[in-house]
Specification:
With about 140 residues, the chain is an alpha/beta fold. It is about 30% helix and about 25% strand. It contains five helices and five strands. A five-stranded mixed sheet has the order 4-3-2-1-5. The two termini are about 25 Å apart.
């Protein structure tokens, strides 16, 4: 395996609380050369996205990033982008960044996407990076 893809999503909250995907980014990474290619990058809107997603408990992403609620309202429907995203996923084995693979892939799989998964990059890097744990946890991150 010489090329993989890295995917990261932003959401309006946790999936089990009704959060929705609001942005998806996917890059291809050649493990031999280090070359990175942008495969997909878009703000997206899912059915049901509305005013309630702009405030607590859903509005965290809009208050803690440069992502704008109105940009999501104007975004293309995620459902229409699923075939393009799946075509990228078919081309690569995937790793995830940011919070963790389980979070990102859980959202994506629940939308019907099939993913050839690699081990979680965040968890795989933990023994190497060995950052101190968050105060409420005992394990390194």
């Amino acid at each position: 395996m010489k090329e993989i893809a890295i995917v990261d999503i932003e959401t309006s909250g946790f999936q089990n609380q009704g959060g929705l995907i609001v942005e998806i980014g996917i890059v291809g990474l050649n493990l031999e050369t280090g070359n990175i290619t942008t495969e997909f990058e878009s703000i997206v809107k899912e059915n049901g996205f509305g005013e309630k997603h702009s405030k607590d408990p859903y509005g965290w992403i809009f208050q803690n990033s440069d992502l704008n609620y109105d940009d999501v309202l104007q975004a293309h429907d995620l459902t229409k982008m699923i075939p393009d995203i799946q075509a990228i996923f078919n081309k690569y084995s995937l790793g995830a960044t940011a919070f963790n693979k389980q979070f990102d892939f859980g959202f994506l799989k629940s939308r019907g996407l099939t993913i050839k998964e690699l081990p979680c990059i965040m968890l795989s890097a933990t023994p190497v990076v060995n950052l101190p744990p968050n105060p409420e946890f005992s394990d390194a991150k």
